[in-house]
Design goal:
Elements (H helix, E strand, L loop, with lengths): L1 E5 L3 H12 L3 E5 L3 H9 L3 E2 L3 H6 L6 E4 L3 H12 L7 E4 L5 H12 L4 E8 L4 H4 L2 E5 L2 H6 L1 H7 L21 E5 L3 H28 L29 H8 L8 H14 L1
Parallel strand pairs: 1-2, 1-4, 2-3, 4-5, 5-6, 7-8
Antiparallel strand pairs: 6-7
Helix pairs in contact: 10-11
Length: 268
């Protein structure tokens, strides 16, 4: 199907590439003409203005915004002014879920559909796919299902076809509920993500100091000697530990993949 993508940063551009690879038609717009041109070369249809972007979409129009949260509300209103009843605006950024609820109510009065899609995929989303947490009207979400199915990791991740009543969650995308539900789930998701990142940092720091028992320390009024230095005599290769954790460990994730890569680069 056809989808418009506005905001062609790393995630937005790679989402377009993934969609193009699966045969979808993508109309693209960004304030940076070079990013538009790069995707035109890859097969997308470019637009040089917001008006041209909306004008090149076929009815019912579907425009997906991948923008910084600080400007999303303003751009949503500008795009909405160019659209007609039955059209769909998708916000795939990290917007506050209250705003999604408010946008949906305001746009519904104009006959427009608003779909909030919490999008998680990181730097490897192009190849691995994107986990999509979706909120919005049933009809609009169903209309966009081919796009969600392409962007999600299911087919590429080797996930077996779910049973008749299993739904889409096994493929990596889920209609979580009405408008705002997608960004609400993504907000909780991000809280968990940041907690995991903090845990990785604390754990790696402990490993970094595992040889503290070998260090000579001066005892003074502000520094006490290590109580049991014999228990801290390990020279641990942190980069190799991160690498082994990536393979089969229950704490593995793409966040750990990034950590392992960074540690390898630093040790190299």
């Amino acid at each position: 199907m056809q989808i418009g993508m506005m905001g062609l940063g790393r995630m937005g551009a790679n989402m377009v590439r993934r969609l193009l690879r699966d045969g979808h038609e993508c109309v693209v717009y960004d304030i940076n003409p070079a990013t538009v041109e790069a995707l035109v070369t890859a097969g997308a249809i470019g637009a040089a203005s917001m008006e041209e972007f909306v004008g090149k979409l076929t009815k019912p129009r579907s425009a997906w915004l991948m923008l910084p949260a600080a400007i999303t509300s303003r751009i949503v209103d500008q795009v909405a002014d160019l659209m007609e009843p039955g059209d769909i605006i998708v916000d795939g950024g990290n917007s506050y879920y209250h705003e999604a609820v408010d946008h949906a109510a305001r746009l519904a009065s104009k006959g427009l559909n608003y779909v909030d899609v919490g999008t998680s995929g990181g730097v490897w989303g192009l190849e691995r796919g994107y986990c999509l947490m979706i909120g919005g009207p049933d009809s609009a979400v169903q209309h966009l299902d081919p796009v969600f199915a392409t962007l999600a990791p299911g087919a590429d991740a080797g996930v077996p076809a779910p049973g008749k009543d299993a739904g889409t969650a096994p493929f990596g995308y889920l209609h979580c509920g009405p408008s705002g539900a997608g960004h609400f789930v993504k907000m909780v998701h991000n809280g968990i993500e940041y907690g995991v990142m903090a845990a990785y940092a604390e754990g790696m720091n402990i490993l970094k100091s595992a040889n503290a028992g070998k260090r000579q320390r001066t005892a003074d009024a502000e520094t006490s000697p290590l109580e049991n230095p014999q228990y801290y005599q390990f020279d641990i290769d942190i980069a190799e530990v991160a690498e082994v954790w990536r393979h089969g460990s229950v704490i593995g994730s793409w966040l750990l993949d990034l950590t392992a890569g960074a540690l390898k680069a630093d040790s190299g």
